């Protein structure tokens, strides 16, 4: 087996991972869980990336501290409260890890805290004290969906992905969960995403793989241009697959990265496609760019344009707005020879050639734009590099959700 | 008289300026004009700034060319068609200037073309041929409002401002018009704004005054984060006030700049307050910043946040979103000691102190946020610099307008 196969499941798909979720009373919605616990039977080499927002959630300081040794065994994550801009946030996050350590009989320094929700409301420790023992009890290899549900805020569905592949004859798995929806303009990590793998890989390489990977997956997602204070992606590699440890960037490392890419892109698309109030997943694919970073910026600029996002909502192939968004991207290229097509399951329509209008069938274009996933293909004809970005349409519902979030 | 006084009127308020507007059949809405002509009885020293979007309207190339000598006498501007990404755009824009030159008996090189509207639809010359002679006939010192109306697209009201002041005992006037509404995220010029003044000032200094001025007025406006392909601000100074020519940056130059600032900020606020679909003018005032550019970026980041804009629509003092937007602004400052208040005609509410929550009366905060103009006061406590930025709330109507713009 040489290929990478997408399988059912999420963060517990790999060997030795368990998860659970429960309602602890932190969030207001008792219909769903608000506290998730992820656990690996053995400590794993772990890597994380965080938001670049200067206003950071308190949990990030604790997670960074606990990851100094590159090892983690559990993650505790609540929704309903961001634990950001609160007076005692770090203390609470630290205490959470101690409660988990006690319940699981592991080291507090191997527990990573995370949080998402409203900013500026002090977080109490009582819900954690009451619920962590129950979560520890409930931990199971089937708990991924429950955990993914517990970290949701305005997400409308849970986000899981898992893949298997072989390394030296051993079956390896990478699986993850994520939450998205609002305040999504990823610059570093994403909202929250937790990935578990049984691949044996060194601390250095798992961090390198994650840091490189986010550039073309999580960092290319935007729902609303707002980079959250809480963005965090964590990968825990517990080594239980039994492959020879990956210690340098050879073929095995490449395969690991390819598999990680599939999981990360899938979760990224799920985050974008479930953007607050959205009806469609919007993908931009830029080719012919002079450099990789420029390709990323042009793709992201298109999926971030409020004007084009509103046009996508209306299934309007308003390519002038695409050209406009390409033009203000921070990338140095020749803007005189741009081709643009819109594509979906219905078909493909070329709407702009050589940076000028071409005749096209407006009714068919509307049909193409009416699908649940719409891709904009952009060829800059000024180089060899390409990149993708993912966003969503801008809808009445987005305004409604965000005009009434706190109440 | 030492002060600068706001007076009635717009781009024709200064001596020697005339304007007219008419419906030429370029736009679809025959209820309003779509072609404006501005004229100065004598050629004036002129300065312009343009969009930084790499995809530029065709008229910009012609305007740049005609302004190489720093002199202009007339501006011809249509709405309903951006003359952008069209095969013959430059040719059409050039031809427009020749038609104006012929009708007015002036040099085509002293005529500046401008346009706004849909991107990518070829522009015909016939409407200009048919309407420019009529416009030349109609030119009048009372024509500013008519011209301001003709350049509107989705703007709901016309935008004019004028001020008078004295230089060496001579009454001087600066007046302008602008259009705004959508695709507004100014980075260099603005949508379209034309300013006429009778001040006698050298070409170099009128350009310097404009280039400096836009940093704290037009460039601090954002409706939707989309930098247009057509942004242009032009100032024509015809010298008819009879003051001693301003040739160096002394007291007279400072007074000219102060007066220009009042006009530019007033028009900027009118653009922001008439953002597509908006109900409120949102102002951010940042103080205590380590540097001027950083102060501007933080202010602009807050008025650009889709999440906070939606909260403003709902009159929700959701300060966590303000902190989030401050935190992702590209400015280096200490994020641990930020104070935030929301203010309006109703009063002031402190919502965040030392980057943490403070108790406040939610009902009163909602009343404060319900006014037509809402100001967010932000003190970073990390320096002496300050800046303003202007935006608007994000509403259902914005989505509606932009989901149906072309149809």
Automatic annotation (TrEMBL), chains A, B:
User: Which GO BP terms apply?
Assistant: L-arginine biosynthetic process; ornithine biosynthetic process
Which NCBIfam families does the record cross-reference, listed alphabetically?
ArgJ (TIGR00120), PRK05388.1 (NF003802)
Annotated binding of substrate, by residue = 153, 179, 190, 276, 402, 407
Q: What does this protein do?
A: Catalyzes two activities which are involved in the cyclic version of arginine biosynthesis: the synthesis of N-acetylglutamate from glutamate and acetyl-CoA as the acetyl donor, and of ornithine by transacetylation between N(2)-acetylornithine and glutamate.
Q: Name one GO cellular component term.
A: cytoplasm
Q: InterPro entries recorded for this chain?
A: Arg_biosynth_ArgJ, ArgJ-like_dom_sf, ArgJ_beta_C
Specify whether Transferase is a keyword of the entry. yes
Question: Which compartments is it annotated to reside in?
Answer: Cytoplasm
The UniProt keyword set, sorted, is: Acyltransferase, Amino-acid biosynthesis, Arginine biosynthesis, Autocatalytic cleavage, Cytoplasm, Multifunctional enzyme, Transferase
EC number per UniProt: 2.3.1.35, 2.3.1.1
Q: Which reaction does it catalyse?
A: L-glutamate + acetyl-CoA = N-acetyl-L-glutamate + CoA + H(+); N(2)-acetyl-L-ornithine + L-glutamate = N-acetyl-L-glutamate + L-ornithine
Molecular-function annotations in GO? L-glutamate N-acetyltransferase activity; L-glutamate N-acetyltransferase activity, acting on acetyl-L-ornithine as donor
Q: Where is this site: Involved in the stabilization of negative charge on the oxyanion by the formation of the oxyanion hole?
A: 116-117
Query: What's the name of the protein?
Result: Arginine biosynthesis bifunctional protein ArgJ
Annotated site, Cleavage, chain positions: 189-190
Instruction: Quote the subunit structure annotation.
Output: Heterotetramer of two alpha and two beta chains.
**Organism in which the protein naturally occurs:** Mogibacterium kristiansenii
Q: Active-site residues?
A: 190
Q: Which family does it belong to?
A: Belongs to the ArgJ family.
UniProt pathway: Amino-acid biosynthesis; L-arginine biosynthesis; N(2)-acetyl-L-ornithine from L-glutamate: step 1/4; Amino-acid biosynthesis; L-arginine biosynthesis; L-ornithine and N-acetyl-L-glutamate from L-glutamate and N(2)-acetyl-L-ornithine (cyclic): step 1/1
* Superkingdom, natural source: Bacteria
Q: What class of enzyme is it?
A: transferase
């Amino acid at each position: 087996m040489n290929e990478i196969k997408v399988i059912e499941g999420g963060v517990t798909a790999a060997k030795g991972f368990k998860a659970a979720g429960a309602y602890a009373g932190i969030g207001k919605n008792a219909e769903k869980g608000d506290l998730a616990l992820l656990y690996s039977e053995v400590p794993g080499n772990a890597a994380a990336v965080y938001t670049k927002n200067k206003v950071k959630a308190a949990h990030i300081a604790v997670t960074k501290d606990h990851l100094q040794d590159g090892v983690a065994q559990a993650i505790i994550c609540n929704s309903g409260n961001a634990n950001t801009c609160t007076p005692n946030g770090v203390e609470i996050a630290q205490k959470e890890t101690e409660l988990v350590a006690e319940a699981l009989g592991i080291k507090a320094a191997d527990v990573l805290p995370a949080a998402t929700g409203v900013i500026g409301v002090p977080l109490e420790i009582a819900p954690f004290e009451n619920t962590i023992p129950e979560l520890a009890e409930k931990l199971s290899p089937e708990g991924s969906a429950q955990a993914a549900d517990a970290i949701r805020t305005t997400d409308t569905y849970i986000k899981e992905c898992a893949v298997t592949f072989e390394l030296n004859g051993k079956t390896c798995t990478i699986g993850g969960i994520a939450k998205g929806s609002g305040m999504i303009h990823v610059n570093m990590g994403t909202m929250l995403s937790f990935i578990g793998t049984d691949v044996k890989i060194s601390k250095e390489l798992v961090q390198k793989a994650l840091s490189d990977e986010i550039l073309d997956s999580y960092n290319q997602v935007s729902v609303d241009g707002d980079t959250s204070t809480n963005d965090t992606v964590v990968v825990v590699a517990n080594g239980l697959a039994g492959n020879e440890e990956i210690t340098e960037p050879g073929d095995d490392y490449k395969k690991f990265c390819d598999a990680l890419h599939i999981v990360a892109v899938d979760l990224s698309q799920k985050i974008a496609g479930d953007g607050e109030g959205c009806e469609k997943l919007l993908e931009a694919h830029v080719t012919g760019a002079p450099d990789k970073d420029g390709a990323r910026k042009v793709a992201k600029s298109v999926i971030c344009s409020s004007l084009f996002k509103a046009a996508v909502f209306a299934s309007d192939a308003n390519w002038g707005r695409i050209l406009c968004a390409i033009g203000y991207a921070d990338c140095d290229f020749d803007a005189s020879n741009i081709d643009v097509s819109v594509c979906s399951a219905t078909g493909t329509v070329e709407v702009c050639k050589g940076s000028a209008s071409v005749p096209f069938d407006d009714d068919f274009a509307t049909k193409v734009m009416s699908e649940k996933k719409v891709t904009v293909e952009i060829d800059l004809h000024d180089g060899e590099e390409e990149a993708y970005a993912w966003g969503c349409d801008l809808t009445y519902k987005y305004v409604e959700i965000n005009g009434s979030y706190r109440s």
